[in-house]
């Protein structure tokens, strides 16, 4: 049973929101790799690690100097990278809320398309959309009751 949006409808706001969230997730992963490589004491001269540090440096630079970096002889804790990860996490969360669309369920246009499809297919909607998920429960129209006649 398909109660999603009709085929061929694309919500541009949802597409942009998904792309932005994907980009932010990739940046968060790169910052997480940076944190773990610094924590493990990876060789900063190695080309792959140097490229990672060079790519993530602009993301970390605004957070440098807020807290001192705790240093021990073998371990470096990259506090600015952790702060950048938290900042990007908050930005990703606010982007889904500010898009004007709830992630919980379909829009009223989607519900109207699903209701039209149900009427055409001979199905009957039962109740309204769920307050938690926004999905309308749809069941098939009941079959007529069986009638048994006695033969004479």
3D structure, described in words:
The radius of gyration is 27 Å and the shape is elongated. The protein has two domains: 12-98, no CATH class; 104-152, no CATH class. The chain is 51% helix and 8% strand. The two termini are 44 Å apart. The chain is mainly alpha-helical. Strands 1-2 form a two-stranded antiparallel sheet. The model has no long low-confidence stretch (mean pLDDT 76).
Percent in helix: 40-55%
Mean pLDDT metric:
76
Q: Tell me the total number of β-strands.
A: 2
Structural class: mainly alpha
- Report the β-strand fraction as a percent range: 5-15%
**Individual helix count:** 4
Number of domains: 2
Helix-strand pattern, N to C?
A: HHHHEE
List the defining traits of the structure above.
2 strands; mainly alpha; 152 residues; two-stranded antiparallel sheet; 2 domains; elongated; single chain; 4 helices
């Amino acid at each position: 049973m398909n109660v999603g949006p009709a085929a061929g409808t694309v919500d541009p706001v949802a597409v942009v929101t998904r792309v932005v969230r994907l980009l932010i997730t990739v940046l968060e992963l790169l910052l997480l790799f940076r944190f773990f490589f610094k924590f493990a004491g990876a060789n900063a001269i190695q080309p792959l690690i140097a490229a990672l540090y060079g790519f993530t440096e602009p993301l970390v630079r605004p957070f440098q100097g807020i807290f001192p970096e705790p240093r021990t002889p073998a371990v470096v804790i990259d506090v600015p990278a952790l702060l950048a990860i938290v900042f990007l996490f908050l930005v990703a969360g606010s982007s889904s809320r500010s898009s004007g669309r709830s992630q919980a369920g379909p829009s009223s246009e989607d519900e109207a398309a699903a209701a039209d499809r149900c009427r055409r297919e001979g199905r009957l909607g039962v109740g309204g959309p769920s307050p938690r998920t926004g999905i309308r429960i749809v069941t098939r129209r009941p079959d007529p009751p069986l009638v048994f006649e006695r033969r004479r």
